[in-house]
Amino acid sequence: MSFLRIENVAKHFGSLIAVDGVSMSVEKGECRAVIGPNGAGKTTFFNLITGMLDLTSGRVLLEDQDLAGIKPAERVRMGMARTFQITEIFPDLTVRENIRIPVEIAAGLHLAPRVPTARRAELRARIDQLMEEGGLTRIAGRYAGELSHGDQRACEIMMALALNPRLLLLDEPTAGMGDDETHAIARLIRRIHRDQALTIVLIEHDMRVVFNLADKITVLAEGRPLAEGTPAEITANEKVQAAYLGGAA
Ligand SMILES: Nc1ncnc2c1ncn2[C@@H]1O[C@H](COP(=O)(O)OP(=O)(O)OP(=O)(O)O)[C@@H](O)[C@H]1O
Question: Where's the ABC transporter domain (predicted)?
């Protein structure tokens, strides 16, 4: 049984076919990269997995459970967390306040009028732990909106992790970053993947990051599956070279 199984999914927007017959099986603990030229359907494919878009056809199964009809918020409760191409954090809150929100949600205490003292200490410890793991402790009191792009992304990733996901979906985690920030985020993702044996699916344009992190790669082109394999197999694949790595991106 694959942890996440996508069966022949399609998404049509009127006459435009954004995703056309894509299947993918991801094993527990795997880091899978989804790559492809601009407009290949990667983000649409993600939105079909998280339930933000309804499928035109096909099936998405998490641990053999068909997710048809299950809303995005419920999928988060089932252990699916994601980050977005454009970072989604609260700019007017500090880093610590940002992390506190999903920690409270995960504990079932968000906006609770009274939090028992014992649980308050437990929440504080969890927030501290997440900030430490994300390299955020040094900037805990800074407003998120004032941070560098890389620190904002690290904050967003740790917010997703605060929900205790079993599957983490990352949409272009290094988009718009310079070399140093890209390396820092790639290191963070590798550490999370290794330490927590988390299943990760990421869309990524930076091939150094993809080849560094991914156990397997799925290549999309014009909404269709083009190839799937290990980084070495994808590098050697002539169809991929022609359609993508050759410069079409
Ligand atoms: N809500 C929508 N309505 C209509 N068309 C859409 C919608 N979302 C995406 N599309 C179209 O579907 C196709 C695939 O888009 P998508 O954003 O999934 O590609 P992508 O591979 O993620 O691209 P990029 O790498 O540029 O982010 C594109 O032609 C896009 O214009």
Answer: 4-247
